[in-house]
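Re: beginner question about structure tokens

> Can someone show what the tokenized structure looks like for a real chain? I only ever see the sequence side.

Sure, here's an example I had lying around. Input first:
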Amino acid sequence: MNRNKYLRYLTVIALSGAVCLPAIAADEKKASDKQPGDADMMAMMVELAKPGENHKMLEEGVGSWTYAVKMWMSPDAPAMESSGTSVGRSVFGGRYVITEHTGKMQMPGADGKMADMEFKGMATEGYDNAKKKFVSSWIDNMGTGVMYMEGTYDPSTKTLTYSGEYEMIPGTKTKVRETIKFTDKNHRTFEFYEDRGGKEVKSMEINYTRKS
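And the corresponding structure tokens:
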């Protein structure tokens, strides 16, 4: 093959490649852009909306409980103790558990002295099948915000661990972590930790006992 024929041969190959490559790229793009149809999306949503074993585990909190609280304003301060009751109920076909707390909490009064104040709070817990995480929210009569947390469960220690943050003072967010250890069906222990200056400090402990 002489030089001119060889160059024409290479040109034909190059041109044929240039023609084929856009077609290949278009096919790949078409495949990657393919989205599930409406029927597939609906089937997926229906499946993700079903309560499962994790929801059943949370339902063990349904019922009436008494609880004893210990709170620490600072790690070296003595614990402030109080008590109360809580009632858990399952809603929306077992997808969530709402627990309402009622009790007393020691807080500084207008005169600076510690006094018992009525405390009311409500927790909503669930398991998000899409995120594959436990989710929790908390509101109470001591503030106006909603604390949202996400967590995981360790079956080896029977402990549910949530983490998140809250903002009680504008512009100041505090990282928090809470654990719930399921001792047995009638007892569980809740612990609350806060990040104070880069150090995690335990600020609350609640021991629950199911009412007979």
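Each token stands for a local structural state, so reading them left to right follows the chain. The chain has one domain: 53-210.
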